[in-house]
Amino acid sequence: MSRRQDIIRRATELFERKGVSSTSFEDIAKAVGIKREGVYYYFKSRADILMEIILPESSTLLMSLKNILRTTMTPREKLEAAIESHLARFNPSYLEMSVALQESHVVKNEERLAELRSTWQNYSDLWVALIREGQANGDFRAELDPKAAAFGILGMCNWVSRWYDPRGPLTIRDITKTFSVLVSEGLVEERVAQEPALNE
């Protein structure tokens, strides 16, 4: 691992545990085992480090969803694949995803922020397009607002960063299966009405 990669990795750990605003260059330098000036050699600010964490994760999510939408899968299959793709970034990139979803507001560099916003906007638009495709195909309920539905699913997936423990009993695959069933089939169990017994 290069010194630059080591700085990013240690900073990610600190950002996830303490938050970006509570992490100093001194903290990062100490975690890496170098002087603070050594961190400044590679990065001008904490926001610069944060962007190095967020953009790769965001770009990977966008490219993966683009590839899913290009397939010949049914909309329902694409939806499950999209959920799996999104949640798969939490393993092994749990720390990176947690930081990306919770700390993006810290970025102040307008040029880098515009790049990040564009990536996330494109990603959100593709989710909406996926819902609309399913509605047009008759697979998804037509009366639902596609943007609200897409954002609802994304919100559910993103909240994983708040509670998922990679060391816990639940795997990402377990969560993916649960979320996919929730979205496609709902939580309420359909019960077949019992026919009343005929009086003899």
Beta fraction: under 5%
Shape: elongated
pLDDT < 50 runs, ≥5 residues: none
**What count of structural domains?**
2
Output the CATH topology of the largest domain: Tetracycline Repressor, domain 2
CATH C-level name of the largest domain: Mainly Alpha
Helix content: 55-70%
CATH superfamily of the largest domain: Tetracycline Repressor, domain 2
Q: Gap between N and C termini, in Å? A: 82 Å
Query: For the CA atoms, what is the radius of gyration?
Result: 21 Å
Q: What is the tally of beta strands?
A: 0
Rounded mean pLDDT score: 86
What is the architecture of the largest domain at the second tier of CATH?
A: Orthogonal Bundle
Main sheet makeup? none
Could you explain how this protein is built, in words?
- The protein has helices spanning 3-18, 25-32, 36-42, 46-69, 75-88, 94-103, 110-137, 146-158, 160-163, 172-185.
- By secondary structure, it is mostly helical.
- The protein folds into two domains: 1-43, Arc Repressor Mutant, subunit A, CATH 1.10.10.60; 45-185, Tetracycline Repressor, domain 2 (Orthogonal Bundle).
- It is elongated.
- The mean pLDDT is 86.
